[in-house]
Amino acid sequence: MRHAVVLVLVSLSSMAGLAIPLIGLFGYIVFGLMRPDTFSYIGPNKYSFVLAVCTLIGSGRKLQNVVNVLQDPFSRGFLLLQLPIGLSTLFAVDMDLSLVKYVPFLQMSLMALLIPVLVETAGHLRLLTLAMGFSLGFLGLKFGLYGILAGGAHFVQGVEGFHAENNTLALGLATALPLSWQGIYLCRKLWSKLIFAGLVFGSIAAIVMTQSRSGILSLGVALLLTIWSSKYRVRTLVVLGILALPAPLLVWDAFKTRMSTLSDPLQEASAYSRYDLNMAALKVIRDHPILGAGFGAENAARLSLKYKSFNLDRTQVVHNNYLQWAADSGIPALLIYCGLLFAAIVWLSGCASRFKETVPDFAYSATGLKVSLVTFAVGSTFTSRTNYDFIYMLLLSAGCLYRLVHEHERATALGAQGAPLTEPAGPAAPALPDPPLPPRPAPLPRPTGLGRALRAAGRNLPLR
Question: What is the mean pLDDT of residues 258-286?
């Protein structure tokens, strides 16, 4: 039954994508982030490729919008990032290990670049923000409700794909949480606002019950920044406090024990192994500073074996996204990535402040994207996420907002100056001369005879 439902939804999304490619893009994003195929136990993902192909075919009618990719700095930065990634794959220590990860990344990049092509209006961007927040929020609600109804739980596994274990699941949910919260403001109907409030509630519970220290730290960053960015901070603090309270109470003992290890992290085996991996990554970077060992983390993981003093029997990725970028694709790739990420955060912060009163939808989208990127920037310090599709969706969504804001400001400036918004007309035709006036009628003849003499006598009578 579940398989049939997924099959019907994918079929409808694929057919809609052929006719209206924006719907196909939304279907691809929702499917990739939510992964409904894992709920139906149908095995590996079989449908993302079908959704992608149908959307790409349907996008042929939007070829004139391809120039949008070059109209904002974040889309251009993402295109520039492809250069060191491709070179690191071409000159990898073992190209086969890199190609296994590079080919899916290239496919994902192509679909992500459809965002600036197909998102043409502020309404489209609002729906995109809601789609991303709903996709991972629904995943959080599924895990969170189960944990609460069970009286508490410990999630050690997530779903297939980029959220396969507790740390990556917690980071994904924490990154999407600000979008779900802003969805409450972006929705127009009360019932839809309540749905997004439920997604926030479930996501907080799921993150706490993963007992992922990096995930819980990311959750704290997301909640604090959401409160700070709100117009009504006290009200936001109260509402988020109510939504966040049940889960820690149910698992308080395990939660407290897990977080207490942060007081001296190197005394805990898991934390020390991460430190050891980071030190090994620095040595890999020293040996391959320009192009790295090869995109995809596998080459760097194998090379780090000779530098590790812990867990020598198996390869592991670097538990730091910034070190992973440098070890995989070189220091130039790391600089481009960091410039793209932090420039987007700075610009979105200014955009949210500028449009808070005038264009609220711009402000809500900018705030959600900003807090999500900051949350990811902090949380990815403790895990490897170089090929994570969600972060690039967020960056290219910021690019769409950048383009739409500038179009809005240009139209507002033209309207304020009274300038025409269309092309000026050609030269005016010469004026025709006025038609000649009709001839005046001849005056009537003056009266003569007796009547004239009587009127003259009346005028000459003396006045008394």
Answer: 75
**Domain final residue pick, 262, 291, 314:** 262
Q: Are residues 269 and 324 in the same domain?
A: yes
Specify the long-range contacts of residues 451-457, CB closer than 8 Å, at least 24 apart: none
Is position 139 within any domain?
yes
- Could you give phi then psi for residue 165, rounded to 5 degrees? -130, 175
CA 252, CA 162: separation in Å to the nearest integer?
28
**pLDDT digit string, tens, across residues 398-451:** 999 999 999 999 988 887 766 554 445 555 555 556 666 666 666 555 555 555
CA distance 451 to 124: 91
The candidate with the shortest Cα–Cα distance to 33, out of 49, 13, 48, 46, is 48
CB 212 within 8 A of CB 166: yes
Q: Which domain holds residue 167?
A: 123-262
What phi, psi does 358 have (nearest 5°)?
A: -90, -50
Distance CA 180, CA 197 (A): 8
In the prediction, which pLDDT does 29 show? 93
Q: Are residues 34 and 149 in the same domain?
A: no
